Request: fold
Amino acid sequence: MTESGTGTAGDERLRRWRLVLGAEDDGTGRALGGRDAAMDGALGALYGGGRPQGERSAGLGGSAPRVARWLGDIRTYFPSPVVQVMQRDAIERLGLSTLLLEPEMLEAVEPDVHLVGTLLSLNKAMPDTTRETARAVVRKVVEQLEQRLAARTRATLTGALDRSARVSRPRHHDIDWDRTIRANLKNYLPEHRTVVPERLVGYGRASRAVKKEVVLCIDQSGSMAASVVYASVFGAVLASMRSIATRLVVFDTAVVDLTDQLDDPVDVLFGTQLGGGTDINRALAYCQSKITRPADTVVVLISDLYEGGIRDEMLGRVAAMKAAGVEFVTLLALSDEGAPAYDREHAAALAALGAPAFACTPDLFPEVMAAALEKRPLPVT
Reply:
C-alpha cells in the first residue's frame, strides 16, 4: 500500500495513519493525493467516518452506476482478499443485495464463497436476465474450490479406504507395523529387545467396488451459507470416487435429496433454498431410511443445531444409527470462519452419544472423513 516517492519511515507512518483515520482533521497534518486520495475515497464511500472529500461524503447510496464504479476502484487499489471483505461489508452494511440482481453488477464483483451464499439467498428473486451471469459467477468459485480441495481429498480418502481393509498375509510394503506389533506383544523377547511377529496385519487394496457409503446432511438455513457451498463441492468430489457411494441431502423444514445432481455442484447449489426454519429430526429420519449398510456408512450432519423439530426424536435417531454401526459426524460449520453461534445444549447431548460437534475447515475435512471411514478418533479441534 505504498506510493512511489514516499519519504522517511515517519512520513510513511503518518500516511498510513491518515488512511486509517480518514478525516481531514485527523491530527496527522498529512494531505493525500493521487492514488492515496483515490484509495481514501473508496474506503470512505463504504465506511464513512466523517470524510468530506469527493465521493466520500456521498457514499454508495443505492445507485447501481456508482456502486459499479466503486467495485472497479477497489479492485484497482486493493488485493483480492481485501476486495472480498469490502464487498461483503458493502452488502451487509449498505443493503446492496438487490443490486446483485443486475447482470452488470455481477460482472464487476470479485467472486468468493460469501458472494455465492448471497446469490443463492436471492435465487428465487433472480430474473432470467441475471440467472446465467449468476451461474457463471458461482461456477468460477466452485472451480477454484475444486482445484484447491479435490486432489488432496481423493488421495486422503483413497488411502483411508485402503487401510480400512485389513489382510492377514500382506505384501511387505502393505504391512501395518503399528497393528502388527500390538498384535504380537506377547512374543516380545527381552534379551533381544524385539518382537517376533507370528501374525502380520496389513493394509488391503481398495477395489473399484463400493466400500463405504457417505451421507452428507446439510442445514440450508441462512447462517450456513458458506458450509452449503463447501459441502456441495466436497459432495461432488466424493461422488466422483467409485469406492464411495455418496448421498447429499439438504434441509430446512423440508428435506430435498440432491444426489442425482452431484455430478455438477453448481446445479446442487441452485437446488438449495437458503433461509427458513430447521427440522433436523425430519432430515435425519430421511437419511436413516436410506441406510442399507450401517457398518459401512458415515453420516455427516452439518448444522448449527438450532432444532425446530422434535429434539428427543432427533437424539434418538442419532443413538439408533450409532448403535447399528453408523459413524456419525456432527460439524457446526464447514468453512474457514470458525464455529458459528450454535445450540450448546444439543451439541452437549450429541457429544454424550459419542458424536462430538465441532467446526471444521475445508482443509481439515479430508482428514475428518478419513478418520470416520477408518473408524478411528476424529481430529476434533
